[in-house]
Q: What sequence folds into this?
């Protein structure tokens, strides 16, 4: 089981979890973060992407996540279906986003048992990549992969979705996530993903080698995107997350997709769905603004 040591982003998510659910969060690896207001010995509720469990009992399926994590029943949840007619309707120069890549050769690949994802962690970088949006600076904490995609973009579910999780500078809860859709193609392997796949170890939760991950090289050539206010897509489903969904998909090979899904299932088979999926079902839009931006 994994250790949570030195993984800043997960500590952040756990801190949000404690805040959101009023529960003490317990990680399987043994490290415990206590909600200061909480003194009972209750562990974090078990959840799964499986829908066929016993309704109302742990591990909670997606429709029941709220029983352990009340924020999952909120009105501004993620993912959502972004209709084709939203895309291609507006040009908003003032919403443009600027990405500032940097070469960090000390990124680490870790399996996050609590979220059933392999995650590339940038917390060890002296100069992590960052972006600027709406006059604010957001530093890249980590990126991770869901498969199939969580968002339905223009009516299509994609093979995978990568989330680049950023934190607003000088804050502890200003999260912004850039989502990139991935399709499977026969062009061969995606070379930008290769460093990650090269160190992915089916027998261990932490890759032994640090490596160079060029996160922003995963971005599509076309800078247009859709943006809305949503939540974390795994419990505790904390809201207040700014989502930026790139319109143009990237690609990976069938081998890369299959290997990723196998590596997740081997590590956290009880969390993945009956068909090996790690995506939350679509949530209600509830009247939220969804802006299409084409700089
Ligand atoms: Zn995610």
A:
């Amino acid at each position: 089981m994994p250790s949570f040591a030195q993984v800043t982003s997960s500590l952040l998510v756990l801190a949000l979890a404690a805040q959101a659910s009023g529960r003490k969060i317990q990680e399987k690896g043994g490290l415990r973060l206590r909600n200061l207001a909480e003194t009972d010995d209750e562990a974090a509720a078990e959840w799964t992407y499986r829908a066929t469990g016993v309704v109302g009992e742990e591990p909670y399926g997606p429709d029941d996540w709220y029983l352990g994590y009340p924020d999952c029943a909120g009105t501004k949840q993620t993912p959502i279906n972004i209709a084709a007619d939203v895309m291609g309707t507006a040009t908003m120069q003032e919403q443009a986003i600027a990405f500032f890549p940097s070469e960090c050769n000390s990124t680490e690949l870790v399996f996050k048992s609590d979220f059933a994802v392999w995650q590339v962690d940038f917390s060890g970088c002296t100069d992590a990549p960052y972006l600027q949006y709406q006059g604010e600076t957001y530093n890249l904490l980590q990126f991770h992969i869901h498969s199939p995609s969580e968002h339905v973009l223009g009516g299509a579910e994609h093979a995978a979705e990568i989330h680049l999780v950023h934190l607003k500078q000088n804050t502890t809860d200003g999260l912004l996530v850039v989502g990139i859709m991935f399709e499977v193609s026969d062009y061969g392997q995606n070379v930008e993903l290769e460093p990650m796949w090269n160190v992915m170890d089916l027998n261990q939760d932490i890759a032994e080698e640090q490596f160079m991950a060029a996160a922003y090289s995963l971005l599509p050539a076309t800078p247009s995107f859709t943006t809305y206010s949503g939540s974390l897509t795994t419990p505790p489903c904390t809201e207040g997350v700014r989502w930026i969904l790139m319109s143009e998909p990237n690609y990976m090979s069938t081998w890369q997709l299959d290997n990723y899904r196998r590596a997740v299932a081997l590590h956290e088979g009880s969390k993945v769905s009956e068909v090996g999926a790690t995506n939350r079902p679509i949530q209600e839009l509830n009247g939220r603004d969804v802006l299409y931006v084409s700089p």
